[in-house]
Design a protein that fits this description.
By secondary structure, this protein is mainly α. It has one helix and no strands. The longest helix is centred in the middle third of the chain and has 24 residues.
Amino acid sequence: YPDDPYVVARDAAIADAVIATSSIDDDTAPLDSQPHEPRGSPRDT
């Protein structure tokens, strides 16, 4: 399991996505993760 290329690539992609999302979440609050966040939401303006 730890050496399976597909699993390694998948886990790396998930980790990258989590890191990318958490790093920008403080400033931009992506609509897909926080759709009801009022700040900077084009849905409300």
